[in-house]
Design brief:
alpha+beta; four-stranded mixed sheet
Length: about 80
């Protein structure tokens, strides 16, 4: 789908996406540091690059806002 979307004045470069990820899907070197944690929250830029992993959803949103980014939740 190549339909342009009007973000209503939001700079698309400042948008990040927050989604829950199962730790079992993360690389082994990361999983080794997450003993006992089943899921985390990832912050991704508009191109899908993972910028951060945090333990709580609220922390992911706070992290985005502290870096002057606009967070959106995705599934």
């Amino acid at each position: 789908m190549d339909t342009k979307f009007d973000f209503g004045g939001i700079d698309a470069e400042k948008i990040v996406y927050i989604r829950q990820v199962e730790t079992s899907t993360l690389p082994q070197e990361i999983r080794q540091q997450l003993e006992g944690i089943d899921s985390m929250y990832a912050v991704h830029d508009a191109d899908g690059e993972r910028l951060a992993l945090v333990k709580e959803r609220s922390l992911a949103f706070m992290l985005a806002r502290q870096n002057e980014l606009t967070p959106f939740s995705v599934h």
